[in-house]
From TrEMBL, chains A, B, C, D:
Residues given in the record as pyruvate binding sites: T49
Active site: Y137 (proton donor/acceptor), K166 (schiff-base intermediate with substrate)
UniProt keyword annotations, A-Z: Lyase
Native source species: Pseudomonas vanderleydeniana
UniProt family annotation: Belongs to the DapA family.
Lyase keyword on record: yes
Pfam hit, one: DHDPS
Protein name: Dihydrodipicolinate synthase family protein
Length: 297, 297, 297, 297
């Protein structure tokens, strides 16, 4: 499999809900359009931010179809297809491929703790069922499973269409060790917003983030500054957006991004219960951050 | 709501699968019958052991209907109805009640980290939708959410049909603090097998466990010894079954209980992928433990 | 080495300081006398509670000499001799033996993380230098080093005068595993006050505690109830003293025991800086607990 | 107090021991000379690497006197004066000042967990006793105490000669938050070798490290590359020395640096027991790393 062509800022979509709780495809279309117009280098539908875990099967299918039709190949797409069972993960991966996804993302979601063999075989099953690349996603905070660097290397070795790694532990040492172990040849992506400056400096191929829904120009400018090796500018841009990156990550992406989009004029509804809309205190804080960053948003 | 009548050893059912992956209701009936004949004081269908998280909605519905019909009121039942969304948890709780469940169990399952308000409101929504008691279940190892003692007390206070607490952190101090804070009046249950001796001594009203699928007489004898204040006997019985309790808990309940049941003559199939059948090394170890305990099983 | 004869409640001494910061031997004598008169089964000078880590070499020597003279063989004694260097630990152990200690206690104190070989060799060096038994002490909370059950078993095997284990992790599973691995033959002691009921039920040979400085009768009654297998009484006694046990452990033993002794009429001064006397809020809480327990203290 | 003039690579000294266990001042002089000749920007005697915690008072005094005489003002010096008691920390700080130290470093070493007030008052006591700046040192791995960013800010605010912060948690977010909270005005230093690239990029004023005993040119070149904003070069230099930085940090600095110095021709003896010389396997690995880096050491 050739080196993946996905580099840069990968923007995550939210999944808008109407007042009656159904998926609001019209608003989804608008949010995708905003992301693409802002200049992100790729789009990632149905990720954690997209509340993929809270959708029914039929909702999930309608969102993936609609998203791919609206992206329409203008930028690459990475569809999150993770599910608790292997069978359903495979079905979702096949559906994503059929809809034209550039790649799929797989988190080793679990209820029971999985053995290493079970994890590897899960990736093998997905890999065997599709022809597009897989981005392995490590995020123990949401999945409950922490993939060690050694295990990631083993999966990279045994499942040939796993060609990308999204690291969200927040521990930069994982990236250092992936880089060293593969001679800088594996494409790794930063999934922890407040670590972005360092991850890019350490060699990350991209930044997986929901922040471009709110501050795309600042996100893209940070990416560009690092690419130009303009360290002074990169540091300044990073600290400028740091509090927002830290807050949306800590407080929860669907909750904060949906609140922020409404502040910016796009009503995408509330997250799905048990998740609740951002409370007044959080909203005031987020509003303050957005106002402060408004000039160069 | 009156004090719950559920005391003693609460046996968890597995969910058998046929070779084609479908639910094997005939085997489920046999496993329920074994548990009831063994003398357990209550039955808990569709818990963690029952792979409830891995079932489709229609499978889940067929299992709860079939289980309640087969239990047929001979012992109380506690049906696990947890789901990632509040809406589906409510639906499952209502279905369990309609099928005749004595109580439901609710784990604050989550993908995104929930605020305390979101957790309380989740329990309130379930509580308002049903008339039977709720057993609150705290198990950060599977749910990713650790309910502090303070939060549990708040839920007990604000949601009147939450009358029981199943604690599975493995930290006996949680039970001490629940006991002290409620003057010994809240019914708490042990969900951590290798902590059973201590939890019962500390005042637990019951023991939620899948072990009676394999060694019911030892489990019940331990319960009885503590009730009779026969400390010498209780300690001896506990250490006798300790390694098995520790192993099935550490290695995963669906995996080990299904393997053990087959060794004991009841084929309930494999757990659902990504979970795999117990490997040869684990099987040999489990077989050794079961053989050793065979006399007084 | 024969089975140690130390069983029961092992009372820890504080180290009183005069207003000028020097050791107050007169007050030390009184506190030792109080402990012995209360009926504790053994005395442990210079432990964590005794601020051994904060004493100069000459202070340490004067305290061990004075303590042993005042205990005068009326009960067994276990002297804590831990130091960051092996050389000084050996010197202290030899001095303790020369002064008549029944046994010494050794915590693998460390600044740099030690390898398993370094830990084993540390115990070997102490063991080779003395003829009395060693109580191995595991308390990662103060030492920074957590001795696994496997490593403890290795040390028990390789250093013949390590015959006792004091476990202070607060994790009852460590005691279960020690018990099972040695067929109940190793003498283990509880060092985590709020775990006492369970540790004794699980088979602990004793309870290492500073609480008898304040509530000796309750501590001894709990021990006796478990020895008589009176579970109802043991549970009741444990929960009665639970809040005090939990508080002194969590808030720090030198700080709280010194404050409590003053409330009970024995002025032993303040702990040594950076430790400060208990603040007014803590003092009010502790006073309330002591008053409540006063009848059966 | 004016902004500290300490910037760049701050080299830590080891404390050489002769075969009889005594301090080997001649070798110490040679190791200081090597560091200064290599071009480090400052020297830090008696830190963790210098086994300060394992020295007697008189040894400590002789080392600080000798070190300061040999540094002779050619570069600034930061002497670690941490001790378990406040009194002895103050004495050491005063002695360091008397010997000509540019600044002192204070780790909140503890046996008993300290309250925030106790920690602040400890720094106040040291601050009041000397006229030179204090570098606050946060390293929960060795001290057992983790100073939150909020507490560090409070100490910076309340103790006027605390003007520098050495952060060794390995969590880059601490540096981000210090930077943001002080508008980039507090001088923070990286104490976690494998985080150096990122810490410098994030704005650290210096790098506290024992590595210049072995690979000074690579360390200094990395510092220089970041100062010149040469990101490509900085990344390349960092990954080149990464494995050595990671290994000496993980395996223990006195152990590995002493082994490495011997390989490079300077025999500084073994670390003090319980620390042992690097074992053969570790030595072979370290030798391989040093050989590989030899050209540009």
């Amino acid at each position: 499999m050739s080196t993946p062509q996905i580099r840069g800022v990968i923007g995550y979509t939210i999944t808008p809900f109407a007042a009656d709780g159904s998926v609001d495809l019209a608003a989804l279309g608008q949010s995708i359009e905003r992301l693409i117009q802002s200049g992100v280098h790729a789009i990632a539908p149905l990720g954690s931010t997209g509340e993929g875990a809270y959708l029914s099967d039929s909702e999930w299918e309608s969102v993936v179809r609609f998203s791919q039709e609206n992206i329409a190949g203008r930028v690459p797409s990475v569809v999150s297809v993770s599910d608790l069972t292997t069978a359903r993960t495979v079905q979702r991966a096949q559906l994503a491929q059929a809809c034209g996804a550039t790649a799929v993302m797989v988190l080793p979601a679990s209820y029971w703790k999985l053995t290493e063999t079970e994890i590897v075989d899960h990736y093998k099953a997905v890999g065997a069922a599709i022809d597009i690349p897989i981005m392995l996603y490590n995020n123990p905070g949401t999945s409950g499973t922490d993939l060690s660097v050694e295990l990631i290397l083993r999966i990279l070795n045994e499942v040939k269409n796993v060609t990308m790694v999204k690291e969200s532990t927040g521990d930069i040492q994982r990236m250092h060790r992936l880089y060293k172990a593969t001679g800088g040849q594996v494409a790794f992506y930063n999934g922890c917003n407040p670590l972005t400056l360092e991850a890019l400096v350490a060699g990350a191929a991209g930044w997986c983030t929901a922040a471009p829904n709110l501050i795309p120009q600042l996100n893209l400018a940070l990416w560009d500054a690092v690419q130009k090796h303009d360290l002074e500018q990169a540091r300044s841009l990073f600290y400028r957006q740091y509090e927002l990156l830290e807050y949306v990550t800590r407080r929860g992406l669907p909750t904060t991004i949906k609140a922020g989009l409404k502040m910016l004029g796009l009503d995408v509804g509330a997250p799905r219960l048990p998740l609740q809309p951002l409370d007044p205190q959080g909203s005031a804080y987020l509003k303050g951050l957005l106002d402060e960053l408004a000039v160069s948003r």
